[in-house]
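for the recovery benchmark. tokens below, seq after
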């Protein structure tokens, strides 16, 4: 069980930091859904 939690603990901060950086570089009030689908 713990072995499956470690990757999530490593990925969660990286995802939050990346999302925060994206919000800093592209400070739009509403997310661009088409751009998000293009990247994801």
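predicted aa per position
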């Amino acid at each position: 069980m713990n072995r499956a939690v470690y990757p999530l603990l490593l990925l969660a901060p990286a995802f939050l930091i990346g999302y925060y950086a994206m919000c800093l570089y592209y400070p739009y009030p509403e997310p661009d859904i088409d751009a998000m689908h293009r990247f994801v």
